[in-house]
Structures are given as structure tokens and as C-alpha cells.
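FAQ
Q: What does a multi-component entry look like?
A: The components come first, one per line:
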Amino acid sequence: DARVTQTPRHKVTEMGQEVTMRCQPILGHNTVFWYRQTMMQGLELLAYFRNRAPLDDSGMPKDRFSAEMPDATLATLKIQPSEPRDSAVYFCASGLLGDRTDTQYFGPGTRLTVL
Amino acid sequence: GDSVTQMEGPVTLSEEAFLTINCTYTATGYPSLFWYVQYPGEGLQLLLKATKADDKGSNKGFEATYRKETTSFHLEKGSVQVSDSAVYFCASRGSTLGRLYFGRGTQLTVWP
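Then the predicted structure of the entire assembly, as C-alpha cells:
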């Protein structure tokens, strides 16, 4: 049963520290998404990639956030420096999105707490 | 732009009650429509989908019908169980390279 995996599952850090979250998409999927979920804002799309190329990162604060796909099996989301308002659950999702009917598959999320 | 609006929660029901969670969308063209479910501590899982007008998606006793005339995709279940307690998200997807537009989510709690 293929799944999206994310590490770490939980991260507690202090303000100003760098945070790196990792995602392994389902093998063969060509599109990877990063979302952030908070009580106040709900589910927000931060960035997404097609065939490892960034398509849209307009949802991401550019001054501190960066997203990359070093290879087809790894996507990373970095925050540097982290701030308390970055505390949220970060989800990665992947899909083989050839047309508009295809589905995104979500990972279990990384719960980030910035003190 | 595309957007999805779903009813505010929380929704609290007794076991075996009938469930409806309303969802409407705005989109250019004819999007595909989805319901995702999020159980506590987990990521979102696809519950059901419909890809064209009048299609009915169904899974685990849940149903939703794509209504183009009312731009709606309401989620229903005839008899809910305690295990259905979760957050439910309605979403649309047009042709814009795969991104989904999510509603705010509706928390459902079912009591025995």
C-alpha cells in the first residue's frame, strides 16, 4: 500500500532556529504539494511542484520559507529563521495528475511548534 | 477565482442520525469535486469524488452528487457511526495544473 511519508512527525524548536521538513512522495507521482494547516487559517497551499519543477510558491512567505525537490523521491520545506507564528501542521501530498480527475494523496503531516 | 464554501461546524449528531454537510463551489469551467476526511492526528484521505455534472460519488455509506445548476456537492450519510467523527473537507479541482481548492473543513462529532 503506497503512502506519502513525512519526517519528522513532530518538531519542537526555538524561535530563530532552522527547521527542515522532508517528504517522500509516492513512487511515480509527478506532482508534489506542501500545505499548512492551522485553526485560524484552515488548510493553505504553500507551494507545489510538477516533475520536480516549482509551479507555484505564491502561498509561501519568501523571506523565510523555501521548498525544493532535490530528486524525485524527496521534497523539502525549510523555514529559516522560524517564528512562533509558523507553528502549524505541515502536510505534503502527491499525485499523478494527468488530468483534473486525478487524486492527491496526503502524508501524515509534521506538527511544528516554535517556542 | 476558484473557491469552495462549506458549512461551518462543528456538527454534533447522535449515532444513526442523518448527516448533511453543505458545500458550494465557484469555478471557471467544470471542475472535479472531492470530499476528503481527516481523522484525529492523521492526514487527509480521499472519501469520494465526482468528475462531471450529475455524477454521484459514494464510499463507506457517504454520498455526494455533483449539481451544476446549484454549483453544489453536498455530503450525505443516512446513518452515522461514532467512527465517522472526523473533519470533512470539500474541494474542487479545475484545470490549473492539479491544485485543489479546499473549504474550511467541518468538524463532525457523533455520540453513541
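Q: Is there any commentary attached?
A: Sometimes. For this entry: Chain B has a mean pLDDT of 93.
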